[in-house]
């Protein structure tokens, strides 16, 4: 089975069928096979978190999964967050309003991580937010504005 | 189970492909995919028996792929180049977490760290699991990494091997030939080295019940949340009806070539009320029992000092939780 393997992967609600080499990483599959370049690739050994996507709902590193392993699974990427073209989700809007990004390289991984985090923990403390962010590296902001953005999003999602 | 905080050593700097004009491609079928790991044959067996038969056939050439949070980074760097990958993620029944009425717990090798961390029965029967798993890498890694994969990787800096020693766990090893059960202490032979034979799989971890009046604690000192600890200590104590220590087990991570038990320190506590003087004496013994290797962040002497400090804190906390 070192030849190509036929897979069907649902990404943001659309099912894509491809034949891929088993060694193709899911991150590269998303970017190069599907053209979904919103998922960023940083360290490619699981440390930086830029490539974080949601696999069947759970945030995971797409650089540490092979595309063949995603066969039959549902994936959410940053491209699926916005409710409509030209509009931002509550979480995305909070990042813009709280200046939660500068260069933006880490942002897709953070958004996918935090979108799941706020579903599980809709009223987090700052300490919990910092723990949730611990697996994503940002080299621009020093994290304070990212923490602010997450807390702002949590308040808005709670209707506050 | 976690990606290394520091990159594995590389013999050569990676070569980047020349920059191409930025262009979205809806299909790149005409181009070679950009790949990092070396080629391998991939099998996704749908039963334990099929997985074990494949492992027997391929031996050392094959690696089991569990959560992939240690193996795939090594493959991305081509530090690991297995010829055959046996993906266990489609094998049903390997991820069970079963609590028995007597307080014992069986954990299937493919139980993911996040699921075990939040499993209600496991939190009741062996709360040190959740306490230690919270320190294992990051939430995204714990969503994917498995306990069996972590233990089979046998990184002496990892928290869970030490926790398994402190809990007196027994490991079920399976192969096409049959199965055997090993104490955790006999499983870890050295850095990234275990008692697993070339045809064997770590299938299940079996934790005995903690007796009444038991308390446990896992504490570590790391430079940042989610980093490997410079020193971590798992402590489990059991008190008798008079409040004296009836049983104690202590094990450390980042403390030597394997998870390091401290049997002399633990034995020194038996029969005592776990007072400050006895805890200090045990911590002094423990400092002599560990064999830390040092790193760019902490010298062996500093790690040894930390071992005593963290062990004393863990013992105080375990005692308070036992009372």
Task: From the structure above, extract its key features.
heterodimer; A: 160 residues; alpha+beta; DNA polymerase, domain 1; B: 323 residues; Uridine Diphospho-n-acetylenolpyruvylglucosamine Reductase, domain 3; Enolase-like, domain 1; five-stranded antiparallel β-sheet; four-stranded antiparallel β-sheet; globular; disordered N terminus
Written account of the structure:
The complex is a heterodimer of chains A (160) and B (323). Chain A has 160 residues and is of the alpha+beta class. Helices cover 32% and strands 16% of the residues of chain A. Chain A is built from five helices and five strands, in the order ββαβββαααα. A five-stranded mixed sheet of chain A has the order 2-1-5-3-4, sandwiched between helices. In chain A, a hairpin with a 2-residue loop joins strand 1 (5-11) and strand 2 (14-20). The radius of gyration of chain A is 16 Å and the shape is globular. By secondary structure, chain B is an alpha+beta fold. Helices cover 31% and strands 23% of the residues of chain B. Chain B has helices at 48-58, 71-76, 113-117, 120-125, 128-133, 139-142, 147-153, 159-166, 184-187, 263-268, 276-289, 300-322; strands at 41-43, 62-65, 84-87, 97-99, 105-108, 170-175, 178-183, 188-190, 193-194, 201-207, 214-222, 229-239, 245-253, 260-261. In chain B, the strands form four sheets. In chain B, strands 4-5-10-6-7 form a five-stranded antiparallel sheet. Chain B has a four-stranded antiparallel sheet with strand order 11-12-13-14, with helices on both faces. Chain B has a three-stranded parallel sheet with strand order 1-3-2, covered by helices on one side. In chain B, strand 2, helix 2 (71-76) and strand 3 (84-87) form a beta-alpha-beta unit. In chain B, helix 11 (276-289) crosses helix 12 (300-322). The longest helix of chain B is centred in the C-terminal third of the chain and has 23 residues, at 300-322. The two termini of chain B are 34 Å apart. Chain A binds chain B through residues 1-2, 5, 18-25, 28-29, 32-35, 37, 43-47, 49, 52, 55, 58-61, 63-66, 68-69, 113, 117, 130-132, 134-136, and chain B through 2-5, 7-8, 24-29, 31, 33-44, 68-69, 72-73, 75-77, 85, 87, 89, 114, 137-141, 143-144, 224-226.
């Amino acid at each position: 089975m070192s030849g190509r393997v036929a897979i069907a992967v649902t990404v943001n609600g659309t099912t894509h069928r491809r034949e891929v080499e088993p060694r193709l990483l899911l991150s590269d599959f998303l970017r190069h096979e599907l053209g979904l370049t919103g998922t960023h690739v940083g360290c490619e050994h699981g440390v930086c978190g830029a490539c974080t996507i949601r696999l069947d709902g759970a945030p995971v590193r797409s650089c540490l999964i092979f595309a063949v392993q995603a066969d039959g699974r549902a994936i959410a990427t940053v491209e699926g967050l916005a409710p409509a073209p030209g509009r931002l989700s509550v979480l995305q809007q909070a990042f813009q309003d709280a200046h939660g990004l500068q260069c933006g390289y880490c942002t897709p991984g953070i958004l996918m991580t935090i979108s799941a985090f706020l579903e599980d923990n809709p009223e987090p403390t700052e300490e919990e937010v910092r723990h949730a962010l611990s697996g994503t590296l940002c080299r621009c902001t020093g994290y304070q504005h990212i923490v602010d953005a997450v807390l702002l999003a949590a308040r808005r999602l709670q209707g506050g | 189970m976690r990606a290394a905080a520091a990159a594995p050593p590389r013999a050569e700097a990676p070569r980047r492909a020349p920059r191409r004009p930025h262009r979205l491609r809806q299909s790149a079928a005409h181009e070679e995919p950009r790949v990092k790991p070396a080629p391998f044959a991939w099998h996704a067996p749908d039963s334990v028996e099929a997985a074990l038969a494949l492992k027997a056939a391929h031996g050392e050439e094959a690696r089991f792929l569990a959560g992939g949070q240690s193996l795939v980074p090594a493959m991305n760097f081509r530090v690991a180049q297995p010829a055959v990958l046996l993906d266990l993620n489609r094998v049903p029944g390997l991820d069970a977490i079963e609590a028995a009425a007597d307080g014992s717990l069986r954990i299937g090798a493919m139980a993911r760290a996040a699921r075990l961390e939040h499993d209600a029965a496991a939190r009741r029967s062996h709360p040190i699991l959740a306490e230690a798993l919270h320190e294992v890498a990051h939430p995204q890694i714990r969503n994917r990494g498995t306990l069996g994969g972590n233990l089979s990787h046998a990184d002496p800096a990892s928290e869970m091997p030490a926790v398994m020693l402190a809990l007196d766990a027994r490991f079920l090893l399976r192969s096409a030939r049959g199965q055997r059960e090993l104490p955790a202490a006999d499983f870890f032979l050295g850095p990234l080295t275990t008692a697993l034979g070339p045809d064997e799989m770590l299938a299940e971890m079996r934790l005995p019940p903690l007796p009444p009046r038991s308390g446990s604690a896992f504490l570590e000192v790391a430079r940042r949340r989610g980093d490997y600890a410079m020193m971590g200590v798992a402590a489990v104590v059991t008190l008798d009806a008079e409040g004296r220590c009836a049983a104690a087990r202590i094990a450390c991570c980042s403390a030597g070539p394997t998870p390091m038990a401290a049997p002399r320190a633990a034995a020194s506590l038996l029969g005592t009320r776990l007072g400050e003087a006895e805890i200090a004496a045990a911590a002094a013994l423990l400092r002599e029992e560990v064999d830390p290797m040092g790193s760019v962040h902490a010298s062996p002497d500093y790690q040894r000092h930390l071992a005593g400090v963290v062990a004393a804190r863990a013992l105080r906390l375990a005692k308070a939780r036992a009372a």
